[in-house]
Design goal:
This protein is mostly beta strands. It has 3 helices and 27 strands. The protein is globular.
Length: 355
């Protein structure tokens, strides 16, 4: 089954089932029935969003995952001439590939023992180590796959992502009701010990706790840009956790949520309906001349509108494209990367863009 255009939406569904949630009448097709949402009419917004950006496919590579079939790429991280892939849907495993798609190794395996994980949700390479988060664990490996350490996460709640930090450290994300510290960014050293935690999220309604991820990071030099799915505001921190500013994207494509409505939402069917009434920022990436963000609107799980917006280094609008080739997983060498998956093969597609 083709998953190319539905990676993000199927990811939400999978997390919903993984966390033990069931819709009220047991029918998946009936839970996506928004009451008042409609797609953005882009023809009326062109002048406010910059120019239309030309995006074209440059190349594709087939991932050699051995006997495994990758069901959904939940995380894709490049470092040097390698990249790390987390499959949350089918193999539920973590893989290290060369830049041409050759399998360098499978990192860890499914299980409950040392070096094992269930439902890996995030991974990254930092320094000479690979960090994988699965369930309530963080597991640290050498880049050849040898186990260094298995540990319980030093914070509570469902983790949303791992990002490489200075000196082999990592920044871990957690936005969940079970997170008692009420902070969303956790800085861990190369051994998984807590260095710092910061970025509170006290203004987030409880309705968002059911879904993950709700936040993501984009790191550049000594700056951390944190975006939230339901806000246009980007928070800026230094690596020590000090807030140094905030940025409002002011996108003409964005529809903000009415948090007053969230107070009256009960049950998972109503949660999906409510979320379909506003836009969601689903990714932010750095390229040579600035940044690109992905914004999603949808009517149901199969019909989404995915808009890429390009910004210069000062977050001034450069342009946009209504992108129908799938959710962006990464930006590498100034090319957008998407995935095309079927029952037998996994392809990464590389897209050039002209500003």
């Amino acid at each position: 089954m083709k998953l190319k255009k539905s990676i993000y939406m199927f990811g939400i569904l999978l997390i919903l089932f993984y966390t033990g949630c069931e819709n009220e009448d047991g029918s998946i097709k009936n839970i996506f029935v928004p009451k008042k949402f409609s797609y953005k009419n882009l023809s009326k917004l062109k002048g406010k969003a910059g120019k239309l950006i030309n995006v074209k496919k440059s190349k594709e590579i087939i991932l050699d995952s051995g006997e495994d079939v990758i069901g959904m790429i939940w995380s894709l991280k490049f470092v040097d001439k390698m990249f790390l892939v987390v499959d949350l849907m089918r193999s539920r495993s973590c893989y290290l590939f060369s830049e041409n798609g050759k399998l360098l190794g499978k990192i860890g395996r499914i299980g409950q023992g040392p070096g094992e994980y269930t439902f890996p949700r995030a991974a990254c390479i930092s320094g000479d180590r690979i960090f994988v988060q699965g369930g309530y664990r963080i597991i640290i490996y050498k880049t050849n796959g040898d186990l260094i350490k298995t540990m319980n996460k030093p914070f509570r709640g469902i983790g949303n992502g791992l990002y490489p930090g200075p000196d082999g450290s990592v920044f871990a994300l957690c936005l969940s009701r079970d997170n008692r510290t009420k902070k969303s960014i956790f800085h861990l050293d190369k051994n998984g010990n807590m260095i710092n935690n910061f970025s509170p999220y006290s203004d987030v309604p409880d309705i968002f706790d059911t879904f993950a991820p709700q936040t993501g990071l984009c790191l550049e030099n000594n700056r951390i840009y944190q975006f939230f799915n339901f806000k246009e505001e980007i928070l800026v921190f230094d690596f020590a956790g000090n807030k140094t500013g905030s940025i409002n994207l002011s996108s003409p494509f964005y529809t903000k949520p009415d948090f007053k409505d969230a107070k009256h939402v009960r049950g998972h069917k109503e949660e999906f309906e409510y979320r379909a009434t506003f836009s969601q920022i689903v990714g932010m990436y750095k390229f040579g001349g600035g940044y690109v963000t992905g914004l999603a609107n949808w009517k149901d799980v199969k019909n989404s509108q995915y808009i890429l917006q390009f910004w210069d280094k000062d977050f001034k609008k450069l342009g946009y494209v209504d992108f129908d080739a799938g959710t962006i997983l990464a930006v590498h060498n100034d090319m957008l990367i998407t995935a095309n998956l079927d029952e037998e093969t996994t392809k990464l597609e590389f897209w050039e863009f002209q500003l």
